[in-house]
Amino acid sequence: MTKLDFIGQDYLFDFGENAKYQLHFENEDELTVTVVEDANYAARTVNHFKPQITHLQDTLYLITWVEEDTGNTVTHIDAFVRGISYTNITDLAPKSFW
Fold first, then answer.
1. Number of alpha carbons in the 13 Å side-chain half-sphere of residue 2
2. 53 in Cβ contact with 28 (< 8 Å)
3. Which residue among 11, 75, 91, 93 is least crowded, i.e. fewest CB within 10 A of its CB?
4. Cross-strand partners of 37
5. Which residues of 21-40 are buried (b: 16+ CB within 10 A; e: fewer)?
6. Is the pLDDT at 86 greater than 90, yes or no?
7. What DSSP state is assigned to residue 74?
8. Residue 1 scores a pLDDT above 80
9. Contact 75, 92 (CB under 8 A)
């Protein structure tokens, strides 16, 4: 996979129970996230974000965005070829980090 070959592709991100999302990278500036399973959003809820994408090395990417409705920030380290994603999310309402 070369730089940004994941653009135009769909990926299922499964972070465990009540945390499953379908991500579609429309282009470098548009990300569509569809809820598959979430404790706070109904399945099939669609959200649109403006990601910041940084190519770190080979097939490793840093992808970040802000959820406009909540102000929460999302940070991913993604290795698409290996099917691995690490994420950290700030949740401003309860002032938590997960």
1. 0
2. yes
3. 93
4. 20
5. bebbbeeeeebebbbeeeee
6. yes
7. E
8. no
9. no
**CB under 8 Å, gap of 24 or more: what pairs does 67-75 form?**
74/49
Q: Which residue has the higher pLDDT, 97 or 12?
A: 12
**Which residue shows structure tokens 């669609």?**
46
- Max Cα separation, the chain? 39
List b or e across 44-72, with b for residues whose CB sees 16 or more CB atoms inside 10 angstroms. Answer: eeeeebebebeeeeebebebebebeeeee
Question: Do 9 and 27 touch, CB atoms closer than 8 A?
Answer: no
CA 46 to chain centre: 13
Considering only CA atoms, which of 37, 32, 41 is closest in space to residue 11? 32
Cβ neighbours of 96 (radius 10 Å): 10
**Residue 37: its pLDDT value, please?**
97
CA-based R_g, the chain, Å:
13
Q: Which whole number is the average pLDDT over 80-98?
A: 89
